[in-house]
Amino acid sequence: MVSGKGSVVSLAGFTVLTGHYKLTTCVKGEPKGMAEATIDHDAVAHGSPDAYEAPLFGAYSKKVGMWLFLASDSLTFGALLFAFSYNRIYTNPWPTPFHAESIANATIMTACLLSSSLTMVMAVFASQRHDRAWTRNWLLATMIFGTAFIVLHGMEWSKLIGEGLAIPGFFSVLGVTQHAASGELADISKNVPQFTQAFFGLTAMHMLHVTIGVIYLGVVAFRKIFLAVLGVIWIAAAFLIPSGNVFHYPVHVLGIALIVCAVILFLKPKDYDAHDVEVSGLYWHFVDLVWMFIFPLVYLMSTKVS
């Protein structure tokens, strides 16, 4: 008879180590040579942390699913990075609108993401030790770094748009107030619109992914408690961000995320374990890795050296 993880199988005097299920076949010297085979299929309760799951390439399904998602998502960012590089190569002269202030801000943003990668690793280690308190602490630190990145990025966008960098025609759809600006950035928007399209498209997609990542970590760390926090942030941002700001309407992404998270948490409540923390870490490291391509390609290579 076999049950539980690390069990043994006895078959005609031979002992074999198995995984989660136990299969025992006993050959007895009975008159009719009957063989008794017993499979304890319910030895491990389904849905429990130790439930049997057939591995695919040595990984559990949640991890494989995340890798497949990241593989598809890398195609999206790859296309955006290729478009930016293509425009840069075939547009002569290519604009160099970023000065020392923008590079300093982008460097701080990069430091926030690099620090968040470290805290994410520490969260994974803490979850593997079954240390719930420190797992939440490290996840919270990762969320703080991610939020700092979003805030700094938003401030940079507002500054650039205020100085005249914009996508002609598109920002008016969002109700963005655009003053009749003159200067280097305004000239770039008029004469080289492909720069603004590539810049805002690439950075907006990455900022959206970072926002989703922060919400993802909040759900894993705090579950239903995070819904109240997310709701407060959404309502506060909706009222505090002025109507002419570029983020006045996009901030309602938080409301959509609140609805999605509430549906998931209430329809399928669960206590997230080390596997879930590790899977969320894969997503977060991917977002950080993408920024390591954006920072030198978009900012450093578009810097005016004087």
Question: What does this 3D model show about the protein?
Answer:
The protein is mostly helical. The chain folds into two domains: 2-39, no CATH class; 61-302, Up-down Bundle (Four Helix Bundle (Hemerythrin (Met), subunit A)), CATH 1.20.120.80. 62% of the residues lie in helices and 7% in strands. The strands form two sheets. It has a three-stranded antiparallel β-sheet with strand order 1-4-5, with no helix packed on it. A two-stranded antiparallel sheet has the order 2-3. Strand 2 and strand 3 form a beta hairpin. Helix 2 packs antiparallel against helix 9, helix 3 (132-162) packs antiparallel against helix 6 (193-222) and helix 5 packs across helix 6. The chain starts with a strand and ends in a 7-residue tail after the last helix.
Helix content: 55-70%
Please trace the helix and strand order, writing H or E for each element: EEEEEHHHHHHHHH
CATH class of the largest domain: Mainly Alpha
For the biggest β-sheet, the strand order reads: 1-4-5
Shape: globular
First CA to last CA: what distance? 79 Å
Annotation, overall tally of beta strands:
5
Q: Any idea what the CATH architecture of the largest domain is?
A: Up-down Bundle
Q: Which fold name is given in CATH as the topology of the largest domain?
A: Four Helix Bundle (Hemerythrin (Met), subunit A)
Largest sheet: 3 strands, antiparallel
Our count of domains comes out at 2
Structural class: mainly alpha
Rg from C-alpha positions? Answer: 26 Å
Count of helical stretches: 9
Uncertain segments are 1-47
Query: How much β-strand is present in the residues?
Result: 5-15%
Q: What is the H level of CATH, i.e. the homologous superfamily of the largest domain?
A: Cytochrome c oxidase, subunit III, four-helix bundle
Mean pLDDT: 80
